[in-house]
Design a protein that fits this description.
By secondary structure, this protein is an all-alpha fold. Helix content is 68%, strand content 0%. The chain folds into 2 domains: 53 residues, Arc Repressor Mutant, subunit A (Orthogonal Bundle), CATH 1.10.10.60; 124 residues.
Amino acid sequence: MPTAFSQEERARISGQLLDTATRLFATQGLRKTSLEELTAPAGIAKSSLYAFFDSKEDLYLEAMLRQNEQVRRRVIDEGLHRGTDTRDALRRFLHATVAELDASPLYRRLMSHPQEMAAVAAKLTPERMAAAEGGPMADVLQFLGTHLEGDPRVLLGVLRAVLLTPLHAEHLGSDIYPAVMDRLIDAVTEGLAHAERPAVPVGR
């Protein structure tokens, strides 16, 4: 017979599972993280995970969605939408995202291991995966389509290329890496700003 959990227990255990999942998925990835590793800190049996999440993949998605809300606040609300013009908005977004990659191991993992989201998508229904469609990059894509000429997907690809650089910081040298990122972000945002649409207010 399944264990019955009180409302307070469910809230505590769900939070513990998400905290543990965020840490382990960021360091070990989806495949190498076992159910026992996920459930032991919460003090529940492996089978009890399914009283909270449909699967390990569902837990991964939920951890990602929780991360998305934190990332959106920092890189979109406090970054992109604070720009005084298009170039400044993109520069703020890139610097905020680089800082987020340094501060949030799961977000860094998602950027460097896109195949993990493909593995999650393969196990979940399209309806469940639809919850992930409104992530921070969707906000950026909309911004690019509004403010810059050209295919927004290509422009987003340019920004993504910049954001791959922090994943290889050790190859650049720790002493010059910050200066390299500053120059790279300045060069890219300056280049993109040449394709700016006229008279579009920033922050929309």
